Fold this protein.
Amino acid sequence: MLTPRETIGPLLANMGAHHVHVAWRQGGMPARHLSWSSKGIPFDGMPVLYDLASLTKAFTATAVLLLVDRGELALHDPVQRYFPDFQRGDVTVEHLLTHTSMLDLYLSHVRQRTSDPFEIRRHIFSAGKKAGDYFYQDPNMIVLGWLVEHITGEDLEHFLTREVFVPLSMQHTSFRPRQREGLHIVEMREGKRGIVHDETAQMLGGISGHAGLFSTTQDLLQFLRMWMEQGQGILRHSTVKSAVSPRFWSSDGVFGQGLGWKKNAPKEGMDAFLSGALMHGGFTGTFMLFHPERQLEIVLLSDFVFPGERTEAERVQWWRQVREIVKAVACT
């Protein structure tokens, strides 16, 4: 029988990234880790940080749900209650969490005109259509990050550090990390490490609700275990159950949208092993999944977008490789 390194290793090498780490844990078994580097760098045993990109959104959703648990916020609250200059009176906190606000704003168009973060805010607060339809967009989580800061009176990083990272022993997770001895940050931008890839997050100072976090596979397994164990003292059991229950299913029936998580629909064929899994992906080449019924957690981190952007065809191929890796891990 082939070992995980023999079956999964070649898949990692074909991801098209310079560095890839995958980690998984099933049931009560210890976590298993595999890494691959085109540079031949021996990362084994060293914490390696990757730009999480949109995996940051899952942490912002967790922060919002914490405030809901404490009665400081309600899912049905209009955003306008907290931000009077937010021009969409029909948009609620739940709309933002489920990407049904229809803010309908491509921030790349805004960035071409301005580098002023206040202009970004003004455009987000004024854009959109009637809420209700699904449209996955960064502004939803950007606004939720600002909402957490507004209610708590502190920035998102400090709140998450105290309420999530420290309790879960996620000691290497942060915004704007610094390279230090015994730790390696994979991506480099502008000759520096720890600079977020997402240009909007850069404009917002590196801390945002949609992108900006850096972390390791081990830390993310800790985060997924919290969700697997129904909150683990961070969130209420009922809140976790509500968050992972889809509010609606996509028109093609592929996934259901919960509060910050997508749930894979039951399917026949090669993706059947993902039926019932909760997941999130990130633009930089990141992915995490937990499957309550299988008691399985998987984290895959890579530097797929570095040093340059990728074509749509390359992205499609990358996601195919992710599916194959998840399938191989699930069968180990």
